[in-house]
């Protein structure tokens, strides 16, 4: 059993996708994260990191501040997202990406998800995105459920 | 809208729960992670970290090794899990836990999930676990989907 046997089609967003549309895609299709395509490069945004799309940094860093922001203000943050795109919220730092090739083994996929803390691994063959393996698909396979 | 309005019942495992049973719970109920109860203390294991339950550390740390382990050996790793419990695989280090109280705001929940990279926040009131808020429940609320 290799990645090619576990992958499934997965929606892809671009740097120009509006943040709100990306968040709606996550919510409506119950996705564990986003695959962001930038020319030939892929970035994976796990769902929890995609939350950064919707929360201003100064609130992210200060739990006490998040507590005092009331409901009306929370709605304002969401409205303010309207004009922003995925480009503006992608992490800047370089780090290991959960991307591998179709020959990856089940154990390799599990180790990659655990190391990168991503519930989603993109499967790429010669620069072409074939699809993604999700944590749920992997667990189902490992446990035979 | 506060955490108390978003929380739902969530299954809880203990330190004595067999690893295999915990992994099956994740897979079968399509959970984003596990809540582990240890007397009065809670630990949250996001799904990607729960994968560490099933993958030996030396393979986790060495992608090349994971590649060469063949299918037959992968099955052996899973069989070897039979006698292990959640206690043996919980992270040792202390770190911020995705646990808050029922008064937490939507923004506070989002910031907590993003900081701790956990798609799951446990809601506790005076030491009693009330339930959990998942990333999906939070996104649905934030976007009104």
Automatic annotation (TrEMBL), chains A, B:
Keyword Signal attached: no
A matching Pfam family: CBS
Keyword S-adenosyl-L-methionine in record: no
CBS domain: residues covered: 93-145
Keywords tagged on the record: CBS domain
Official protein name in the record: CBS domain-containing protein
